[in-house]
Amino acid sequence: MFKIFNPYRIPVLFAILSLAFYLSFAYDLERSDFLKLIMLYGALFIITYLFLEKWKPNFWFLASVGLLFRLAFLWATPNLSQDFYRFIWDGRLVAQGMSPYLFTPEMYFAEVSSSLKIIIPQADELYRGMGALSAGHFSNYPPINQLFFAVAGLFSSKSILGSVIILRILIILADIGILYFGKKLLQHLNLPVKNIFWYFLNPLIIVELIGNLHFEGVMLFFFIAAIFLLSNGKWFWAAILIGISVSVKLIPLLFLPLFLRFFNRPNKTISKDLKTFEIGIPKLMIFYLIIGIVVALTFLPFLSFEFLQNFSATIALWFQNFEFNASIYYIIRWIGFQIVGWNIIEAVGKILPVLILLFVLGMAFFRKNNSIQQLLTTMLLAISFYFLLSTTVHPWYLATPLLLSVFTKYKFPLVWSLMVILSYSAYGKGGFDENLWLITLEYISVIGIATWELFYKKINRTITPNLEDI
Q1: Is 463 part of any domain?
Q2: Which residues contact 458 (CB under 8 A, 6 or more apart)?
Q3: Counted domains in the chain
Q4: Is 113 within the bounds of a domain?
Q5: Is 271 in contact with 278 (CB distance < 8 Å)?
Q6: What CA–CA distances, in Å, run from 406 to 153, 376, 419?
């Protein structure tokens, strides 16, 4: 029997070692212990590289290992982010038929619970856990995301750990769905199937999405399933899934203008993988209409003037108030201090979204998006530009460019998924204090690799990989 597993002896040993590292990550790590954090993360990243580039075991071995690593976190309380306390809070509110967009946790303790007779189990613990910043603002999570929170609120209304486990199972299922549709899409595009494991085995995904319960993976499941359907000419169902994806996280809204050239390309440019795809502006308008209807229907149960006011104001905070792990914005902020003597985030936060929109529209009108791979490449460049100009870039945000990159020739998101761990240096035992030298190292690495790939590296425009059937 041992001889059967002999070809995988080394991968199995390193899989066991990785499992031990993930268990340490999940149950024996404090966010303030930055040295231990980066050592574990770096070791896991190196092992992932060896799995995919050196040992190259088969698809099912890698899939099983990736699932095992996820299950290692099943009973763990997130230790790198406190956002999950707000997820549980919102879920228990929605489960009682109340809108999380109309009441802040602070309002609950001040007046709402007494006036509306709302009882949120473990309210004090959830309130302390989420922190004053989150407790003082209305929820910014879209309705489908709230639906998943409500599932935890319904089935585990009195146990925080129980709610964590339910939310984690939902995210794990979404990741399995990404593995399934990602594999199919890679095969459809005639790209190496192993590429999907740069997402599925990436420590960033396992630690941030599974470990810390961020729902980017759920959003990406619906989105990548939509792209797969689109590649098969099923644009109607793709539009529905994109609408659902938007209602999990708003990020896919950034990509909507990029479909313009894809739907309106000359017939002679239709690639062999899109023979059944109908093109034209009328189809594009219907495509957008379906997405809009789906999004509107998900928001409809919460719709009110107060909701529109509160939700838009909360979203604006991410551009005009919050700062974390930024790049170009920090340079602009420094210049602002030199010129006017104070933080100009409020003014800059209104300008940067305009620049991002102009960039995306430029990509939509002037860049060829005649195939699925060209479309995904444009999406990768758009989301990367967005994050480079953002005032806040949490590590889990990078799940989107990371997944998009596996369908392209660009590798800089992989470098970013490694270097972003340096942002956790801000959470020391003495409190929050960003190390700008480490942030600089992160972005010099990422921007350097991206510049090399975009402008200097000689890459064949038509990718003809040496396929490896794994």
Answers
A1: no
A2: none
A3: 1
A4: no
A5: no
A6: 35, 10, 18
Has residue 3 got a pLDDT over 70? no
Q: Is 268 exposed, middle or buried (0-12, 13-18, 19+ CB in 10 A)?
A: exposed
Q: Is 429 exposed, middle or buried (0-12, 13-18, 19+ CB in 10 A)?
A: exposed
CA 364 – CA 258 distance, rounded (Å): 4
231 and 274 Cβ atoms separated by less than 8 Å: yes
Which residue, chain included where needed, has tokens 């594999």? 183
Chain CA centroid to CA 153, Å = 23
Computed over every residue of the chain, the mean pLDDT equals 89
38-67 per-residue burial string, b: 16 or more CB within 10 A, e: under 16: eebbeebbebbeebbeeeebeeebbbebbe
* pLDDT tens digits along 395-408: 999 999 999 999 99
| pLDDT > 50? residue 388 | yes
CB atoms within 10 A of CB 123: 16
State how far the Cα of 366 lies from the Cα of 360, in Å rounded to an integer.
10
171-200 tens-digit pLDDT: 999 999 999 999 999 999 999 999 999 999
pLDDT tens track for 338-369: 888 877 888 888 888 999 999 999 999 988 88
Q: Are 73 and 211 in contact (CB under 8 A)?
A: yes
Highest mean pLDDT among 281-285, 411-415, 427-431 belongs to: 411-415
In a domain, 125, yes or no: no
Per-residue model confidence (pLDDT) at position 115: 59
Quote the percentage of the chain above a pLDDT of 70: 91
Closest Cα to residue 318, out of 218, 394, 252, 379?
394
Distance from C-alpha of 187 to C-alpha of 462, rounded to nearest angstrom: 16
CA-to-CA distance for 203 and 44, rounded, in angstroms? 6
**Range name among 98-112, 155-169, 413-427 with the lowest pLDDT average:** 98-112
Per the model's pLDDT, the better-predicted residue between 24 and 455 turns out to be 24
DSSP secondary structure code for residue 6 in this structure: G
Q: Which domain holds residue 41?
A: 2-102+138-456
Residue 299, Cβ density class (10 Å: 0-12 exposed, 13-18 middle, ≥19 buried):
middle
**Residue 228: C-alpha distances to residues 53, 132, 232, 247 (Å):** 26, 41, 7, 19
Please tell me the total number of residues recorded for the chain in this structure. 470
Contacts for 178-181 with beta carbons within 8 Å, 24 or more apart?
Answer: 178/217, 178/220, 178/221, 178/224, 178/403, 179/63, 179/66, 181/221, 181/224, 181/225, 181/228
Q: In the structure encoding, which two tokens stand for residue 363, read together?
A: 């990509």
Residue 465 domain-assigned (yes or no): no
